[in-house]
Design goal:
Elements lengths: L1 H15 L5 E11 L10 E2 L2 E5 L3 E5 L2 E3 L2 E14 L12 H7 L9 H5 L2 E4 L4 E4 L14 H20 L5 E10 L8 E7 L7 E7 L7 E11 L2
Antiparallel strand pairs: 1-6, 1-9, 2-5, 3-4, 4-6, 5-6, 7-8, 8-10, 9-12, 10-11, 11-12
Helix pairs in contact: 1-4
Amino acid sequence: MAAVAFLIDVVGGMTIDNDPTNWAFTSDLVIRLPRAPAPVSVDTRAVILRNGARSAICEMPLTVNGEEWGSSLISFAKVPRREGDPVKPPFDAHAAVTRMPTEPLKETLRAAAGFVSRNRSQGIVAADLRTELLNPAGAMQGAVVAGLVEAAAEDLADEQLGGDRPYVVTEMEVRFLAQNRQSPIVSSARFVGNPADGLIRVDLFDDDGNGRLTTAAVVRVAPAP
């Protein structure tokens, strides 16, 4: 799910974030995936549904071999650069694509991001704000936020539901409430309703879990296919 979130966030962001005087921060992200083995590759494109002065919404159809496989919607808030913010680099679509790594990770995404499970039965996972996890404005990148939500939900499900197969996230709704800027970012998670239904509420807090509520999410988990 985090890899798909990254694809959606990057393609949507590259489409919308083209004003040097404003940041375009992800504000809402909804993803629906089938409960099926991961395909070799997934394609998407940004279909702009609304692009106003203060916000934008894109539909991000997810296709595999030309067939619709999953769906997503992503919203962005347009925020003027403040004095003291990092300089916003000029947008160059070709450079953005060519700078991205082309080799697969040699470790899990969770390990590469440095996520640390503190209490699996409560979905408590922590992440330090390393440079590799930040967006150009210096806050945790939107897809990394989604990855931390995913890790919290999977920890909770694996620990409390058990079973022969690990649990994976198949649906995700994320509300980005504030920028994650004070390290470490820490999650908490709980089941909503009957745990067997796989619906989980996840919150993220900054300042080692003692600060602001930065992210609120609802996800659904299922045993890996």
